[in-house]
């Protein structure tokens, strides 16, 4: 079930804060604990805090640490990007969001503010972030200072950007519109949006758009002479008091901000008197320019007034100050209670989110991104710590992966090999590995060597194995590591960086054996593509499976998908789609498909089907329009090892996909095989897969 919503825009000052405040109020009426998260915040001075986070946490009394409410400042984000660490950005955002998801009933996520340069990059980050968090979005766009055509274009652009990345859009809000255009905006959005997406339009509320005296003081670096307690006064309009008082009084409007040189006592006193007069509108404050302040006698007069407004002294001249006031963009602060209440009441008047929230809480996310998948693997491995043996303990890649695994304390590790050689290699590689936390065993000198050899002899004596042969085999790290699993001294094994597949799995086939009802050991790769995770099987073990074996491989692969949180849509691949193809190879795939349908009618499966029809929605619908799998397949079963192995390597090399695996399936205990060309990442990921497999055995 979904536990989050992402509020996104494609521009600054869109009124996104209104949606955040209003939606937070609505969510707190529906569920007990709501968290708040901003992946990216604007840069703040050292020792200061982000204003908007403080406003949300303070006003709604959210009992969550400030540091948990964001992932990166804008400068940190740009620095990571320039260092080529975009993956680290997403990983950190996912980790921090998932922590909140674990602690709260629901999490409101607010996208970035688009301040400064790099707005296109920020928008891309928002789209990618929403996709990787797996949560739907509400898109807000502003109509202020735009032509009708510009505004409508931005609506379409924002919507298309999220949809193209397979992000669900729940609603669109056209904000800061002219009152007379509200219905037209909703009508236009309705024309290009699917029916299930809600549309709302909100007018420009001038009182929310204008800054408070507090914001003006900050922007002008002003000195407060009077009225500290009224700095949250909202400005309506502003005007320069340069004319005769009798003429200036006629220009005053409600909540006017008076800007005048500091030596114009007549304007100052006249404006203050007008403020308390029932015949004139109230003013919000007075800005005194030129670094001038009233004479002591005037100050004394002001001090004796029954009512006062903020009076601010600034150094700059009237012209510059007036221009700067006009350029100030209003924000909402934690102590701007009146402004917050106005914002929420405006939201509630124009946006009916109660039905949307019901949909939101029951929303089922679809699909899974590579980053989500990898994060999920780590979290699942941490749930129940397992012990994994790595027989190739002197291989550099194994040692580097072991160091990473030990650093995050995700599994217990045993390395096999000469202890002194392994420790020297650790020093040579400069790895920060605490060898007290990683077990190192030299099989020949192990205290369990004779017991293991005796056990192997008992298991294989009916095959002509004697004790001398058993001892000889037990000096082999693959046999020793597999025996550790058999005897319960380890939960799983990962090998193959320096050994063949046959060398790795032969001991497992001899005495770990296959699960009841399983006759074929097979494998799958988790292919982490740019925007999805696909599962490929079998690309490592069985050269030419029969129809029955292919069906068994398919069922085992589907079970592996379920075990790792993937709802399988199975494509039985061939050179032909549907009933058109003829020949032994396509007939074998067709037969295997029927066997799976008979044995597991609950599985979504299509076959035979070509690769493009399986993964491309346009091709799939054109070739097989009635299929629930065509164009959407995420479990691809290859007809033979030649096709599967070459395809996975081609996809990996040509697209830059991360291939996690192969993960062997069908054994009683997890033993997994690495490619001899594996990377440190391959070792790291395969160990995590193995640990998760062990949790279910």
Task: Give unreliable regions as ranges.
Answer: none
Average pLDDT score: 85
Number of helices: 28
**Biggest sheet layout:** 7 strands, parallel
**Overall radius of gyration:** 34 Å
Can you lay out the helices and strands and say which pair or pack?
Elements: E1 4-9, H1 16-28, E2 34-41, H2 51-59, E3 70-73, H3 74-82, H4 86-103, E4 106-110, H5 119-133, E5 137-142, H6 148-164, E6 169-177, H7 182-192, E7 198-203, H8 206-209, H9 213-220, E8 223-226, E9 238-240, H10 245-248, E10 256-261, H11 265-276, E11 283-289, H12 296-303, E12 311-313, H13 318-327, H14 337-350, H15 354-361, H16 370-383, E13 387-390, H17 396-407, E14 412-416, H18 419-429, E15 439-441, H19 449-460, H20 467-474, H21 477-486, E16 492-495, H22 501-512, E17 522-528, E18 533-537, H23 547-563, E19 569-573, H24 584-599, E20 604-609, H25 611-615, H26 617-623, E21 635-637, H27 641-655, E22 658-665, E23 671-673, H28 680-695
Parallel strand pairs: 1-4, 1-5, 2-3, 2-4, 5-6, 6-7, 9-10, 10-11, 11-12, 13-14, 13-16, 14-15, 16-23, 18-21, 19-20, 19-21
Antiparallel strand pairs: 8-12, 17-18, 17-22
Helix pairs in contact: 1-14, 4-5, 16-28, 17-28, 19-20, 21-22, 23-24
């Amino acid at each position: 079930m979904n536990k989050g919503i992402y509020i996104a825009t494609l521009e600054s000052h869109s009124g996104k804060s209104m949606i955040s405040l209003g939606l937070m109020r609505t969510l707190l009426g529906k569920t007990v604990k709501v968290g708040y998260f901003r992946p990216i915040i604007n840069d703040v001075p050292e020792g200061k805090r982000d204003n908007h986070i403080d406003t949300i946490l303070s006003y709604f009394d959210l009992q969550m640490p400030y540091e948990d409410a964001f992932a990166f400042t804008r400068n940190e984000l740009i620095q990571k990007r320039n260092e080529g660490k975009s993956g680290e950005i997403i990983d950190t955002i996912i980790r921090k969001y998932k922590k909140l998801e674990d602690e709260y009933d629901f999490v409101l996520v607010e996208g970035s503010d688009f301040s400064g340069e790099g707005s296109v990059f920020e928008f891309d980050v928002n789209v990618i972030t929403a996709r990787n968090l797996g949560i739907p979005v509400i898109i807000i766009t502003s109509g202020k200072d735009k032509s009708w055509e510009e505004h409508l274009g931005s609506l379409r652009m924002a919507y298309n950007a999220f949809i193209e990345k397979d992000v669900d859009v729940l609603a669109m809000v056209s904000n800061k519109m002219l009152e007379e255009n509200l219905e037209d905006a909703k009508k236009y959005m309705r024309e290009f949006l699917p029916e299930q997406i809600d549309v709302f339009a909100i007018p420009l509320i001038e009182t929310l758009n204008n800054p408070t005296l507090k914001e003006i003081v900050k922007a002008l670096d002003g000195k407060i002479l009077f009225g500290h307690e009224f700095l949250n006064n909202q400005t309506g309009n502003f005007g320069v008091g340069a004319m005769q008082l009798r003429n200036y009084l006629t220009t005053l409007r409600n909540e006017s901000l008076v800007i005048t040189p500091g030596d114009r006592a007549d304007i100052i006193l006249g404006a203050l008197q007008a403020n308390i007069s029932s015949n004139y509108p109230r003013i919000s404050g007075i800005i005194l320019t030129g670094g001038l302040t009233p004479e002591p006698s005037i100050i004394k007069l002001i001090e004796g007034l029954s009512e006062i407004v903020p009076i601010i002294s600034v150094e700059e001249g009237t012209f510059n100050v007036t221009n700067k006031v006009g350029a100030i963009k209003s924000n909402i602060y934690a102590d701007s209670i009146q402004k917050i209440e106005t914002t929420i009441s405006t939201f509630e008047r124009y946006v009916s989110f109660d039905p949307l929230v019901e949909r939101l809480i029951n929303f089922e996310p679809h699909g899974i991104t590579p980053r989500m998948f990898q994060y999920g693997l780590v979290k699942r491995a941490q749930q129940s710590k397992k012990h994994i043996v790595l027989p190739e303990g002197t291989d550099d890649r194994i040692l580097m992966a072991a160091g990473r695994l030990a650093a995050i304390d995700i599994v217990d590790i045993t390395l096999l090999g000469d202890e002194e050689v392994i420790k020297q290699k650790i020093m040579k590689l400069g790895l920060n590995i605490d060898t007290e936390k990683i077990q190192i065993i030299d099989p020949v000198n192990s205290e369990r060597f004779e017991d293991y050899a005796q056990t192997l002899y008992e298991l294989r004596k009916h095959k002509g194995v004697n004790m001398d042969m058993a001892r000889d085999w037990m000096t082999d790290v693959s046999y020793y590591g597999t025996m550790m699993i058999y005897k319960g001294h380890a939960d799983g094994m990962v090998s193959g960086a320096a050994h063949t597949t046959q060398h790795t799995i032969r001991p497992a086939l001899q005495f770990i054996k296959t699960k009841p009802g399983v006759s074929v050991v097979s494998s799958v790769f988790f292919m982490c593509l740019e925007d999805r995770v696909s599962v490929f099987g079998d690309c490592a073990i069985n050269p030419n499976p029969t129809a029955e074996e292919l069906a068994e491989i398919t069922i085992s692969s589907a079970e592996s998908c379920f075990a790792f949180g993937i709802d399988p849509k199975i494509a039985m691949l061939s050179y032909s789609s549907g009933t058109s193809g003829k020949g032994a190879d396509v007939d074998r795939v067709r037969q295997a498909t029927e066997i799976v349908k008979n044995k597991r009618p609950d599985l979504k499966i299509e076959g035979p089907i070509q690769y493009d029809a399986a993964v491309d929605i346009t091709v799939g619908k054109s070739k097989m329009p009635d299929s629930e799998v065509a164009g959407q397949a995420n479990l691809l079963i290859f007809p033979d090892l030649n096709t599967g192995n070459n395809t996975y390597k081609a996809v990996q090399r040509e697209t830059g996909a991360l291939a996690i695996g192969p993960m062997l399936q069908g054994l009683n205990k997890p033993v997994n095989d690495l490619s001899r060309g594996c990377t440190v990442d391959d070792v790291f990921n395969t160990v995590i897969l193995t640990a998760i497999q062990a949790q279910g055995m």
